Amino acid sequence: ILGRPQYFAEATIYVSPTFIKNLEEDSEQKRQYDTFVQQQVNTITRFDILSEALVASKDAGFVWAKPGESEKEAVERLREELQIRRIPETYQVAIGLRASKPEGLAEFINGLADNFLKKARAEEFYGQQERLENLEKERAALDKDIAANSAKLAELAGDLGVANFSPQLVNPYDQVLTKYKEELNGSRQK
User: Fold this and answer.
1) What contacts 103, CB < 8 A, 6 or more positions away?
2) Does the global pTM surpass 0.85?
3) DSSP for 50-68?
4) How many CB atoms lie within 10 A of CB 66?
């Protein structure tokens, strides 16, 4: 009679114990696993991750914000209420939330875990998108240079009267010369 029902939903995330390999040797990459897990726990409570999870959970009936409460206040209150902990002796992190209504609570926790995993995968390599764009630009420039040089080679081949400059295709004049040399050597041996 005096008590109110409380509902608790929890999701578990596996945090890989192996680090991302870089081409460059860096002493910071050799940090302790516990520090890495703590960084992931702190990332879960980032404003953008919590805010997107709250917006997505409204469809499931989970409304966290109180009437008249701003988004920032709701996210800050959620950040304080979330129970994020490392499960001892495992590679797992648990994300839990207690609420007075069960509607959409499990969906919210699952959505929060999914949103965190998407953001973590997208940010796996710092500046990955910029690096890929730079590599694509360099590739386009190299392809352009190759095309220009191929055109120059074709022009030179025409000027010299040579069939082509391809290393896979043997020049017919060289084939004839090699054949005559082999016959001459064969004659000398006889």
Assistant:
1) 60, 61, 62
2) no
3) HHHHHHHHGGGT---SPTT
4) 9
Residue 45: what pLDDT?
87
Cα gap 8→31, rounded to integer Å:
34
The single-letter code of the amino acid at 13 is I
| E-strand stretches of the chain | 7-14, 83-86, 92-99
C-alpha triplet 123, 125, 126: angle, nearest 5°:
80
Percent pLDDT > 70 in the chain is 81
Q: Report the C-alpha gap between 97 and 109 in whole angstroms.
A: 7
Tens digit of each residue's pLDDT (9 = 90 or more) over 165-189: 565 556 667 777 888 899 999 999 9
pLDDT digits (tens, 9 = 90+) for 130-166: 888 889 999 999 999 998 888 888 777 777 766 655 6
Q: And the tokens for 172?
A: 């017919």
Residues in CB range of 57: below 8 A, 6 or more apart: 64, 104, 107, 108, 111
* Those residues with Cβ within 8 angstroms of residue 22's Cβ, 6 or more apart along the chain or in another chain: 29
Task: Using alpha carbons only, give the angle 182, 187, 190 rounded to the nearest 5 degrees.
Answer: 125
Residue labelled with tokens 């997107």: 52
